[in-house]
Write a structure and sequence with these properties.
Layout: E1 8-12, H1 19-27, E2 33-36, E3 54-58, E4 65-67, E5 80-82, E6 85-86, E7 91-92, H2 97-100, E8 106-109, H3 116-124, E9 131-134, H4 145-148, H5 150-159, E10 164-170, H6 176-180, E11 187-192, H7 196-202, E12 203-204, H8 209-221, E13 225-233, H9 239-253, E14 259-266, E15 268-269, H10 271-280, E16 291-293, E17 299-301, H11 303-320, E18 326-328, H12 333-340, H13 347-362
Parallel strand pairs: 1-2, 1-3, 3-8, 5-9, 9-10, 10-11, 11-13, 13-14, 14-18
Antiparallel strand pairs: 4-5, 6-8, 7-12, 15-17, 16-17
Helix pairs in contact: 8-9, 9-11, 11-12
Bound molecules: iron/sulfur cluster.
Length: 364
């Protein structure tokens, strides 16, 4: 990863003897390390610094499996988050974590492996339900894998279950351990995509578009299912040509038949995120455009702009292949209909639609 280094390792009390702690310390034998007390929550809503060069190892006492923080006012996909840690060594200017996390440092949970049985019991106790689970909501799924070895134990754990799928969402090309693994079933490797210009200007330390797509191609050839996420779509003069370049690269390198889903979501932010972005990335252009406050308090592009972007991009993707599992992230029934020409109407139906993609592609 471009420009990434760990300056120090902070080992919280309680994490010392967990297996993941030992692994990280073995991987980084020369990094300075300190034993520290668990971090006290700061009363402020934002932390000043993300401190992405310190790695804090935590014996986590909360829930490892959580519902994705959607909102009742928009149609949500019913995703579950496997909480492996929070904060991310990559540095996208628009990243919502800048106002979401209230503790600094890259935080990884050392007792995840020891708690997998609890997650297994939840999944196994509802055999008729499909669990769509991802690790990429509070961090990038693969960027720290070389240290943590997450994929070494998560792939076998999820692959042997019939009613779940694990999605590893990334902006890196760090797929070495995936390719080396012998587990494929129930694993989706997914890339967040954007235009070459947005990647160069706003997605700092991430892999280039071409490297992401070549990594996706390699995973596909190795037998993994793929997902793609055009999120956040950003509106700027020339956006259409930019997204066209991205779709052309997909067409060139990816066979669409094993794409399980592609989501589209437009840039959205709470006022607190705008303040954090302005402070950390004063030169960014992502606030150019017309934004309005939505029902959840988040600002989004004015509806006709969103409809135009979703409509044009979905039409273009549909030309590539008619069965890509396209869906919108956090949008209303109305926007679905105007953009895609249909709507699941509610969150329950969107869940069923995505579950049916899992059943169809992976076999019942
Ligand atoms: S890759 Fe995702 S989690 Fe990491 S900085 Fe970018 S938006 Fe945030």
């Amino acid at each position: 990863m471009k420009g990434f280094r760990i300056r120090r390792i902070l080992i919280e009390r309680g994490a010392e003897s967990d297996s993941l702690t030992k692994r990280v310390l073995d991987e980084l034998p020369n990094a300075p390390r300190e034993h520290v007390e668990p971090y006290e929550l700061a009363p402020c809503e934002n932390i000043e610094e993300m401190d992405k060069e310190s790695l804090r190892i935590i014996h986590f006492k909360g829930e490892f499996l959580k519902p994705c923080p959607g909102t009742k006012r928009y149609i949500c996909c019913g995703y579950k988050i496997l909480n492996v840690g929070s904060n991310c060594p990559l540095d996208c200017s628009y990243c919502y974590l800048q106002s979401y996390v209230n503790q600094p440092s890259l935080r990884i949970f050392s007792n995840l492996q020891e708690n997998l049985d609890v997650i297994g019991d939840i999944i196994d106790s509802s055999p008729d339900r499909i669990f769509r689970i991802g690790t990429g909501e509070f961090t990038d799924s693969l960027s720290l894998d070389f240290l943590t070895g997450w994929t070494d134990f998560l792939l076998p754990f999820f692959s042997r279950r019939k009613n779940c799928v694990l999605e590893l969402k990334t902006k890196t090309s760090s797929i070495k351990s995936l390719i080396a693994s012998r587990y494929r079933k129930a694993i989706v490797v997914a890339w967040s995509l954007n235009t070459p210009r947005i990647i160069a200007n706003e997605e700092h330390k991430t892999a280039t578009l071409k490297r992401r797509i070549l990594a996706a191609q390699e995973c596909q050839k190795a037998g993994f299912f793929l997902g793609f996420h055009f999120d956040p779509l950003l509106y700027y003069p020339g956006w259409e040509a930019g997204y066209e370049q991205t779709v052309q690269l997909l067409e060139r390198y990816i066979a669409p038949e094993s794409v399980i889903w592609i989501s589209l979501g437009s840039f959205r932010y709470m006022p607190s995120l705008k303040r954090a972005i302005k402070r950390r990335f004063p030169g960014t252009n992502i606030f150019d455009g017309e934004f309005v406050a939505g029902l959840d308090g988040k600002f989004r592009y004015f509806k006709p702009i969103r409809v135009e972007m979703y409509g044009k991009l979905s039409e273009r993707l549909d030309k590539w292949h008619h069965d890509l599992g396209l869906y919108l992230c956090m949008e209303s029934d109305d926007v679905w209909r105007q953009s895609l020409g249909w709507s699941p109407e509610n969150s329950e139906n969107l869940c069923s639609y995505l579950d049916s993609r899992v059943r169809k592609l992976m076999g019942d």
